């Protein structure tokens, strides 16, 4: 019985020692840490590599979310940072815009522009023309944003700065998909032409 208790204590010690949390900041930087406490405006943590070291802190306004060791994710809403950014309207607008950009980077997904442009670009001989035309049309049209795909639908529809940042980044990602599709289509065209030339 004593051995079992000792084993449980050892396992508990190692489980605690190797536990780690992840702090994801608004600028996409990540901090591997052990969360000690979450207060009204700050998050207190210790470095994962130095669990007995100094207690560090970071403003909640700089944190996008925390991923705990068990996989649980905690998102920090705009309201938690409101007191920090309400001093000036311009700062608030910039904050919401950046938040929209960050959310679009993580959550907006649309592979349709890639496959559509690729299919048009991969057409033998005429692909360079059909691909360019299709890619231009698809890339110019702003992407459709659906409420089900938004991490914070109410914020998107109620805050124009957040919506502007989200739509801007979503459009950038859509254009990037178009360029990737066109590039892959041109690669297929090149291989096709080389095969034809090699048979002459």
Draw up the topology in text.
Blueprint: H1 2-17, E1 21-25, E2 30-38, E3 42-47, E4 56-59, E5 63-67, E6 73-75, H2 82-85, H3 89-107, H4 112-121, H5 127-140, H6 153-158, H7 160-199
Antiparallel strand pairs: 1-2, 1-5, 2-3, 3-4, 5-6
Helix pairs in contact: 3-7, 4-5, 4-7, 5-7
Largest sheet: 6 strands, antiparallel
How many structural domains? Answer: 2
Shape label: elongated
Q: If helices are DSSP runs of H or I spanning 4 or more residues, what is the number of helices?
A: 7
H/E element string? HEEEEEEHHHHHH
Into which percentage range does the β-strand content fall? 15-25%
Provide mean pLDDT, rounded: 80
| Radius of gyration from the alpha-carbon trace, in angstroms | 25 Å
The number of strands is 6
Give the spatial strand order of the biggest sheet.
Answer: 4-3-2-1-5-6
Helix content: 40-55%
Residue stretches low in confidence (pLDDT < 50, at least 5 long) are 1-18, 79-90
Structural class, judged by helices and strands?
alpha+beta
Q: How far apart are the first and last residues' alpha carbons, in Å?
A: 84 Å
Outline the structure in words.
The chain is of the alpha+beta class. The chain has 2 domains: 68 residues, SH3 type barrels (Roll), CATH 2.30.30; 111 residues, no CATH class. Helices cover 55% and strands 16% of the residues. The protein has 7 helices and 6 strands. The protein has a 6-stranded antiparallel sheet, with no helix packed on it. β2 and β3 form a beta hairpin. The chain starts with a helix and ends with a helix. The N terminus is likely disordered.
């Amino acid at each position: 019985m004593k051995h079992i208790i000792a084993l449980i204590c050892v396992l508990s010690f190692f489980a605690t020692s190797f536990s780690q949390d992840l702090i994801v900041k608004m600028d996409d930087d990540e901090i591997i840490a052990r969360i000690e406490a979450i207060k009204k405006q700050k998050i207190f943590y210790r470095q994962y590599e130095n669990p007995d070291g100094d207690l560090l802190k970071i403003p909640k306004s700089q944190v996008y979310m925390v991923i705990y060791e068990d996989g649980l994710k905690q998102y920090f809403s705009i309201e938690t940072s409101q007191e920090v950014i309400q001093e000036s309207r311009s700062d608030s607008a910039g904050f919401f815009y950046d938040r929209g950009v960050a959310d679009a980077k993580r959550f907006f997904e649309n592979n349709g522009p890639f496959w559509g442009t690729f299919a048009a670009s991969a057409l033998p001989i005429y692909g360079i023309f059909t691909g360019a035309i299709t890619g231009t049309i698809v890339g110019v049209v702003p992407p459709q944003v659906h409420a089900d795909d938004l991490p914070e639908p109410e914020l998107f529809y109620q805050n124009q700065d957040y919506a502007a940042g989200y739509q801007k980044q979503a459009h950038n990602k859509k254009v990037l998909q178009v360029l990737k599709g066109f590039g892959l289509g041109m690669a297929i065209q090149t291989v096709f032409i080389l095969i034809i030339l090699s048979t002459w």
